[in-house]
Design brief:
The complex is a heterodimer of chains A (about 300) and B (about 280). Chain A is α/β, with parallel strands linked by helices and about 300 residues long. Chain A is built from 13 helices and ten strands. Classes of the chains: A alpha/beta (about 300), B mainly alpha (about 280). At the A-B interface, helix 3, helix 4 and helix 5 of A face helix 7, helix 8 and helix 9 of B.
Chain lengths: ~300, ~280
Amino acid sequence: MTHCAIDMQDVQYRYPDGSVALNGINLQVGRGERAVVLGANGAGKSTLLAVMCGVLQPSQGTIKILETKLTRQTTRRLRASIGLVFQEPDNQLFMPTLWEDVAFGPLNMGLPAEKVKSRVEEALDVVGLAELRDRPPHHLSVGEKKRAAIATVLAMHPKILVLDEPTAHLDPQSRTDLIRFLGQLHAQGDLTLIIATHDVENAPLLADRAYVLSHGRLVGRGTVVEIFSNPEMLQAAHLAAPTVAQLLHLVPAIARRIADEPTPLTLADAAQVLRRLCAHTEEADRAENHLLREVH
Amino acid sequence: MLKELLRAVGESLQIEQFASRPGVLQRVDPRIKLVSFAGVIIVAVLLQSVLQFLILLLLLTALAAASRLPLRAFFRRQAAFVGFSTVIVLPLPFITPGYALLTIPLGPWLFWVTFEGVYRAVFFAVRVWVCVAALSLLTLSTRFVELLHGMQRLHFPRLFIELTAITYRFIFVFTDEAYRMGLAREARTVRKERVVRPRTWRTLSSMIGTLFVRAYERGEKVYQAMLARGYAGDFRLVNRLHCGAKDWSFGVGLMLAVLLVYFAPFLAPVTSIGGWL
């Protein structure tokens, strides 16, 4: 594939104790794509992301970021173009104030002070935390911490944004906000998004392509629709299709009628299908209403 | 234990609040503050008379008042350290040779309380007191970030600044963690806890162990997060300090006052009992 944002060839990673965490990983994500890495707890998602970003060194295999091979020499330079947002924001926010934390990355890139300032302001604006700039991170709510963690990475202007379980521990509203925010971010530029999650409900909203990780191996790849149309593979990987998809398939009358179409995975898609299926019922209702009105 | 932890966290949260009050010290550049309070501490270590100490303490208290710091909090912070140093110097009056003020016969033994011993003990305690007062004044009146910036501009070692920043940041994370662990333990504790029961101590020790392991693991994660954002071994901050004439005059003024206390002849040191009689 040309224009690869991430290209991993036969990557293996062993924990310091020798046990294999990742094995035979072949993964390609094109520039500007939105990809999701699905996997159960302990499948190796976080390790995969850390290896992908050059934070952990693979014991075998090659990784290319934006067509540059990740080596000891290039790691530092490449880190500016690939931003990793950790699952636990408390691990990522380690400076005494939010402002300092967001400035940490740009300062490490050796940018001049003025540039650092403008980047920090910009990143805080983007995530909507500009007013909290002087707050110590421990005063932020979990949702704010998540956004703050994203800001720390955005300030480095990465070409690739890698997020580990971004929707975990968020209330429904914050989760919706975050998903919308990530969508907008992706729509604005040629940002490549790579998201690891076991949140199958929201995966279709976050990405177009999906990879399934199970026990350190990639066991499935394809579009999100393809992946979620394969219940056997999902079950083997301790995953499941989104509830809406399962629900529609639980009603035989509906399942029969949509058997040849792509499985609706989101609430909006499912609503559309149901609306279409109900269309004739609605028509009948309208006709009946009309009749009733004429009678009166 | 939980309550103390909570209180410690609560108190540290208040620090920042005092540091943004409109007071005298809050307006001074952190570099000047760092250097002048270091000066106060050096002089305090060299002082030879209790009267000088008391004047220094008065001076620091006046500064605290002028900076609108709550004096109760100011003194409460010092009390813990002074208490601790008092415990340390408790044996001094008995083991220092010198003029016996008091003889205590205890069975076959005889104990002396010597003037020199009392003198050394009191001195140590008061010296610690003044130093701690100066440091509390500095930390209560300065926002933590500014302190870091000040240290960086004064070319403190990078590793030192880095460790200070990260320690400060994670104190809260770990007190929270300890608090949650304590809650989890209490939720499963049915019997009434007694301090003497060995089981209580065993759970406590395993809790401390777990906390250490978690701290270690978190350290790894934080380091990874730092690496991911291009950390290459040097810690950088954007300069946002400005040091003007007002700052300099505060520093010079404080130094002059402290030196005056040190050199003033009427505050001549008392080093032997003769001086006092």
